[in-house]
Design brief:
By secondary structure, the chain is an alpha/beta fold. It has helices at residues 14-25, 39-55, 69-83, 99-110, 128-134, 157-166, 186-189, 227-230, 238-276, 303-312, 332-336, 341-344, 358-377, 380-386; strands at residues 2-3, 63-66, 90-94, 114-118, 139-143, 170-174, 193-197, 208-212, 280-282, 293-298, 315-316, 347-351. The protein starts with a strand and ends in a 15-residue tail after the last helix.
Length: 401
């Protein structure tokens, strides 16, 4: 198997698992209990909170544990808007957000809040002039992801932060894909709220955090006990918290080395594919891109059939967000970027991890070239194109960006 879907999830690192196991079996005390046995769990949570805060340049008391990125996104957006209704009911987000942000904003829009949906350019980045132009006196929150989960495009968060801070507007960023992949310093970037998740970086599923800058007011999303300083009810998932901190510690230690390796493999894979397969488009910015993300569109190819045939060859990939798999509509991200439907339906996301090799990239190119060729043989539009009755949309030999 060649696993190229690390943006969907990653395997738990052996060191992380080793760190977690004692908190399942030996130190299983509830950190909210008052007896001494539970102090072990309590201290483990405290240490983990400090380690994770350090990764983004925050204070430990600004880190609140959640069940993952989706909960963190929901809490940040709903919590700020419900707490600040008197200050304004207008929020702004982009058209290429993860569904956890997109659908939360749509939910609020249906319930009396006003949402501005920011456009993106062909490269998938928002345009600062539009953001600045559409800010209003009642704008309470701007939510823009740090890096896109489908195309890997990195947004100008520090530039957005300078603008929002100068206008007294809160900035939330979904950093699930960016966390431990690129440098993040919340104070320098002037970020007020940040969402992160463990399972993209070799940690366990079911654990994430929301960074809330000290002084920011928001309503709890989950009510109940007094955990997380009264802000997020529910018994702490201690093994997950410990595992998250260990995974982040390991990922940060290796980040520069892994960035160089992934960028090399990413660029090697892109260049080989666009040379080998005509009518291929590279989606997203080539300059502002996560190290391990490759997003391609193949004209005259059905993306669903492409994924199934790759799976038969032992190659794990996706057409976009794992949260949207199985949907018949083209990616809302590619649509917002202006990618024609004919290309959006033939999209493929390949995301690299620590274990991937150059030899695997060669195998992927070989298999992909054969599969795309087979699928095009069944395409009437492709036959029309080669007979001169139809033109190709995608470049013949190179990516567009």
């Amino acid at each position: 198997m060649i696993y190229l879907d690390h943006a969907a999830t990653s395997g738990v690192c052996p060191e992380v698992m080793e760190e977690m196991i004692p908190y399942f079996t030996k130190y299983y005390g509830n950190p909210s209990s008052v007896y001494g046995f539970s102090d072990i769990s309590k201290k483990a949570v405290k240490k983990s909170r400090a380690l994770l805060a350090d990764v983004i340049g925050a204070m430990p008391e600004e880190i609140y544990f959640t069940s993952g990125g989706s909960e963190s996104d929901n809490w940040a957006i709903q919590g700020v808007m419900t707490a600040g209704q008197k200050k304004g009911k207008h929020l702004m987000t982009s058209k290429i957000e993860h569904h956890a942000v997109e659908r939360t904003c749509a939910f609020l829009e249906k319930n009396g809040y006003d949402v501005t949906w920011l456009d993106v350019g062909e490269d998938g980045r928002i345009r600062m002039p539009q953001l600045e132009r559409e800010i209003r006196p009642d704008t309470r929150l701007v939510s823009v992801m740090m890096a896109n989960n489908e195309t890997g495009t990195i947004q100008p968060i520090a530039e957005i932060g300078r603008l929002t801070r100068s206008r007294g507007i809160l900035l939330h960023t979904d950093a699930v894909q960016a966390f431990c992949q690129i440098p993040i310093q919340v104070n320098a970037m002037k970020v007020d709220l940040l969402s992160a998740s463990a399972h993209k970086i070799g940690g366990p599923k079911g654990i994430g955090f929301l960074y809330i800058r000290r002084g920011v007011t928001l309503e709890p999303l989950i009510h109940g006990g007094g955990q997380e300083r009264g802000m997020r009810a529910g018994t702490e998932f201690v093994p997950g918290i410990v595992g998250f901190a260990k995974a982040a510690q390991l990922a940060e230690k290796k980040r520069r080395e892994q960035t160089r390796k992934k960028q090399m493999l990413r660029d090697y894979l892109i260049e080989r594919v666009v040379r080998a397969i005509p009518y291929t488009r590279v989606n997203g910015s080539r300059r502002y891109r996560l190290p391990g993300n490759v997003n391609l569109s193949f004209q005259f190819v059905d993306g669903g059939a492409l994924l199934r045939m790759l799976d038969m060859e032992g190659i794990c990939a996706s057409a976009g967000s794992a949260c949207s798999s199985g949907q018949s509509k083209p990616s809302h991200v590619l649509t917002a970027m202006g990618v024609p439907k004919e290309l959006a339906y033939g999209s493929l996301r390949l995301t690299l991890g620590e274990e991937n090799t150059k030899e695997e990239m060669d195998v992927v190119v070989e298999k992909l070239t054969n599969i795309v060729g087979q699928l095009r043989e069944y395409s009437s539009e492709y036959r029309q194109m080669i007979s001169g009755k139809k033109e190709g949309i995608a470049p013949r030999r190179k990516g567009s960006l």
